[in-house]
Specification:
Oligomer: single chain
Order of helices and strands: EEHHHEEHHHEEHEEEHEEEHEEEHE
CATH superfamily of the domain at 243-317: Ferrous iron transport protein A (FeoA)
Structural class: alpha+beta
Number of helices: 10
Radius of gyration: 23 Å
CATH architecture of the domain at 243-317: Roll
CATH class of the domain at 243-317: Mainly Beta
């Protein structure tokens, strides 16, 4: 049952025969759970197409999944058993924990988290997942806002609806970012959006939305906006007077309100170590010859910050 067979190419990865088969098993189970969550039927054809391995390979695998008690047939449709659902959740937990690790503990760019986690999710045992979760403080959500299954298999609900479903002038809080397809998520990552960020829909038209994200106005395509989920803000949106540190002029003094949720890992730690914490007063002392970087006086110490770093810091006038 579920013994190695021919075939070593799975989702673009060339693997030893036995490992390739296990990875394909886990990817099929994940696909079935994803279909159930979206309320669409899962079939051998849908799995083969979604995973890029073809109908024949999935069709040969399914009888073994049924014999193993992981999958049930309902006509042409495939459904997870309780054991199959538990297995799929374990793989999903590994993926989301590893993305959280990359976001919080490394300098890996956000558009690489999903791709790397797609590999590591097949390597983390349940014991390794538990150790990683403990080291991260047992987070409830990954950096995209997806709930991380607990070690007991519980999954909290997910709030929010796409940005395209909100009207102009509504104040919102980002709750979730869909990380696929990769090209669309790359646009979201470039805009610096992240769960927990406050924004306001300013204008729509021409196939795009104009939003003000934590005081910075940006344009986002409708395809990307459809994959950014949010809920109405209970705090009235972006506070009056909030700005980005990058917008202040030389000689101007401001008070730090916080650091963007999109700033993670070593970059966030460095800013905190420099004294960029809520309540700190920051003064722009002088800029470089080309206007970047800028030297700031923070708690009696001079620090240099690039513009992209200063854009991650929210401030208000003293």
């Amino acid at each position: 049952m579920l013994q190695p067979t021919s075939g070593v190419l799975v989702c673009g990865m060339r693997l030893p025969v036995g490992e390739a088969r296990r990875v394909l098993v886990e990817d099929v189970l994940k696909h079935l759970r994803d279909c159930r969550g979206r309320g669409v039927p899962a079939t051998e054809a849908s799995a083969g197409g979604a995973l890029g391995v073809g109908l024949d390979r999935v069709a040969k695998l399914v009888p073994d999944l049924v014999d193993a008690g992981l999958v049930e047939r309902r006509g042409e449709c495939l459904e997870l058993t309780e054991a199959g659902d538990s297995y799929a959740l374990s793989v999903i937990r590994a993926h989301r924990l590893y993305e959280t690790y990359l976001a919080n503990r490394t300098g890996t760019p956000g558009d690489e988290w999903h791709r790397r986690a797609e590999v590591e999710e097949h390597r983390l045992s349940r014991a390794a997942q538990d150790r990683l979760a403990d080291s991260l403080g047992n987070p409830r959500f990954d950096p995209h806002g997806d709930p991380i299954p607990t070690r007991g298999g519980e999954v909290v609900g997910q709030a929010g609806r796409p940005l395209t479903g909100f009207g102009v002038g509504e104040d919102l809080v980002v709750t979730h970012l869909e990380d696929e397809p990769e090209a669309v998520f790359a646009e979201i990552a470039r805009l610096g959006l992240a769960p927990g960020m406050r924004l306001r829909v300013v204008e729509r038209g021409g196939g795009r939305l104009s939003v003000e994200a934590e005081g910075l106005r940006q344009e986002i395509s409708l395809a990307a906006a459809e994959r950014v989920h949010a809920v109405p803000s209970s705090v009235g949106g972006v506070p009056l007077g909030q700005r980005r540190l990058s917008a202040m002029g030389v000689g101007e003094a401001v008070r730090v309100l916080g650091i963007s949720p999109a700033c993670r890992g070593s970059e966030r730690t460095r800013l905190l170590d420099l004294g960029i914490v809520p309540g700190s007063v920051v003064e722009a002392a002088f800029s470089g010859p080309l206007g970047d970087p800028t030297a700031y006086r923070v708690r009696g110490t001079m620090v240099g910050l690039r513009r992209e770093q200063a854009e991650q810091i929210f401030v208000e006038k003293v």
